[in-house]
Amino acid sequence: MNTTDHADRASAFATHRDAVAAETARFVQVLRGADLAAPVPTCPGWTLADLVRHTGSVQRWFAALLRKRVQERPLSREVELRLPESEDGYADWLADSAAEAASAFAGVDPDAPMWAWGADQHAGFWARRMLFETLVHRADAELALGLTPVIDPALATDGVDEFLVNLPFATPFAPGVAELRGTGETLRFRATDTGGDWTVRLRPDGFGLEPSPAGADTTVQGSAADLLLLAYGRQHRDAPAFEVSGDEGLLTRWAAHSKF
Fold first, then answer.
1. CATH code of the domain in which 221 resides
2. Which of 150, 177, 212 marks a domain boundary?
3. pLDDT tens, 91-137?
4. What is the extent of the structural domain holding 188?
5. Are strands 218-222 and 186-191 parallel, antiparallel or unpaired?
6. CA distance linking residue 191 with residue 240, whole number of Å
7. What's the DSSP call for residue 13?
8. How many CB atoms lie within 10 A of CB 117?
9. Burial, 111: exposed, middle or buried (Cβ in 10 Å; 0-12, 13-18, 19+)?
10. Strands 243-246 and 197-203
11. 162 with 181, same domain?
12. Structural domains counted in the chain
């Protein structure tokens, strides 16, 4: 890897590392005084307490992977959680989870080879993945409490890219993704506020990103933040936030099989 690539990866890693801390702090603030028994509509069957446990557990697991610089798929996701005795301590526990992550990030070379389930087989994958796991669940908490999530457009653009780049590799834990096949149909996502532009082509053997053509079978336009929430199923494709043109059935098929 040349010097420019290394500098770009280091810069991205720093952005993701800092954003994990900032997003977790926002999440913690949302939780202060909230009823943790409240349901989370965007995560059916979960309460806020479940959402916190999941997010903090993921941060601690990813941190453990980074410390070990794992080279093969782990056989277990078990990690020391140190959960508080009562849910009153969950907000502080989540803050501590972010501190565990920050400790793991310290001194990590984002170019260090590591096993990862996605496209990027380096340590930097895990900081980026942790960020969007945290950010989306922060939005879940806000939506559960009747708040409107505010998402930085640049982070949202990066998040849409991260989702689409890694989705083809998600079949081990999201088998529905394997149904995203076709005969060359194209689905374009365009961020109207940041210029983000992604085109997915469905092929007989799977799907992947390619340069956006002059036209696409289906085009979805909206803000980067709304597109990120759409990608994760937190916004519906029929919402007024989106302008959809072309074959809407293709978007419906995508939405049915792109969950992870």
1. 3.30.1050.10
2. 150
3. 999 999 999 999 999 989 999 999 999 999 999 999 999 999 999 99
4. 157-257
5. parallel
6. 15
7. H
8. 15
9. middle
10. unpaired
11. yes
12. 2
